[in-house]
Design brief:
Number of domains: 1
Subcellular location: Cell membrane
Membrane topology: Multi-pass membrane protein
Keywords: Cell membrane, Membrane, Transmembrane, Transmembrane helix
Radius of gyration: 16 Å
Largest sheet: none
Mean pLDDT: 94
Protein name: DUF3817 domain-containing protein
Structural class: mainly alpha
Strand content: under 5%
Main location: membrane
Number of strands: 0
Length: about 100
């Protein structure tokens, strides 16, 4: 499971940061009429989010998560700052499960 946890953690942070940058780009676009930044950031964030979804599926299948839990983790990448919280909670859960399995 550790091999699936590391990519998930990295992608959760990257997607979280890109979502915050995207929010700034949207403010610039709709608040100030400057669409250049959002034209660049939006597709990058979208692509990274798709990779994040794959990482969640990979980790979820290895950890044998329920589908509702997995969908909740997936949605964590759609709300600013939530991906950081979700990453921390998922990491704690996986590490606890690993420790229990080893004991």
């Amino acid at each position: 499971m550790e091999s699936a946890l590391k990519p998930f953690r990295v992608l959760a942070y990257v997607v979280g940061v890109m979502l915050l940058v995207l929010c700034v780009a949207m403010v610039l676009r709709y608040g100030f009429g400057n669409a250049e930044m959002s034209k660049i950031i939006a597709p990058i964030h979208g692509g990274l989010y798709m990779i994040y979804l794959i990482a969640v599926m990979n980790l979820g299948m290895k950890a044998r998560w329920s589908w509702p839990y997995m969908l909740g983790v997936m949605l964590g990448g759609t709300v600013p700052f939530l991906s950081f919280y979700v990453e921390r909670r998922v990491t704690q859960r996986v590490q606890t499960e690993q420790a229990a399995a080893e004991a």
